[in-house]
Each structure stands twice: as C-alpha cells, then as structure tokens.
Amino acid sequence: MDRVRAFLAAILLGTAAASAGADTYAVDPRHTFPSFEVSHLGLSTQRGRFNRTEGEISLDIAARRGWVQIQIDPESVDTGDAQLEAILRSETFFDTATHRYIYFRSTGLEFTGDRLSRVQGELTLLGVARPISLEVASFHCGTHPISKKEVCGADVTATLKRSDFGMTRHIPAVGDEVKLLIQVEAVRN
To answer: For residue 39, which of 184, 177, 187 has the smallest C-alpha distance?
Structure first.
C-alpha cells in the first residue's frame, strides 16, 4: 500500500498545476475492468480481465484538460481457467512476483467538444514504459441514480504489442498484438 501511496503522490505532485475548475474522481473498482484479447494459435481469441484496478482522474471539461492515473493488479488476472491464470502470473507473462503492478499515466487528454475522445499516456508493464493512445469510444458524466454522486464513465480501447514490453514468450502461437478494452467508472471526490 505504501507503494500505491507513493505512486499517487508522485502523480498528484506532477499535476498540481491543474486548474481550480478541475474535479477529481476516484476510479470505482466495482465498475472498472481492463480486459484484453489476444490470438491463440491463430484459431481463436483468448480473453481475460483484471479484477483489481484503482486510480484517479482529474477533469476540467470547460478548459478541456485533466489527467489520468491507473494502477492495475496483474495478480487479479481472470480468464475463467485457474491453470491459465497461474501461467499468466508466472515469469512467462506478467511475472507478478517481480512486477506487482501495471501502471498507466496520462500525458495528455484530447476532447471533441465537451466529450473526452482520446487519452495519450504511458503504460508501464514488466518495468518497461511505452507510449500508448487510448481511444475513448463513449464518455458520459452525470448524477448516479442511486448514490446521487457525480460519476463519469467511459469505454476505452487500445492496441499494443506485448513484445514492446519484453513479453515475448510463445510468439507467434500466442499473438504479439493485444487489444485492450476497458470499462471505467469514476466517482467525484
């Protein structure tokens, strides 16, 4: 948890220049699940998701700026197959014994009108940081009908090559190209 706090503090200090009009949102771990798709032997698409994600998002929609920081626990990988999940946690893939988290930190947000449409950033996987562009397929903010709190949600997609992060085992049997599909909801602090 100290590592998480240190990461959050670094992000917050790095974004202290955000305007007074920005709202900060906590990622809702019950409604945020990064998932992935990758080719398996060229025969089918293997899918999985991560069940533990946390982070913060700051948005100033009027000024069209903000920032995003997300932390994903690769130990929470879920494919519906315990044997496959053990392999994914091993040094062959996510190496969770050495690399406790996957991090995403934005470097820029792009808006189309008042709608967030793209998030540029840096993904750190297996200790390797690479630029990535997240396409925002839908984006909406409003009052949650049950909690009455301000909530923003989005569906986000991206594609990456796992070899760019040093995850090269079993290529091409397990595809190099990985599609990310992320559902995210965040509640205003």
So the answer is: 177
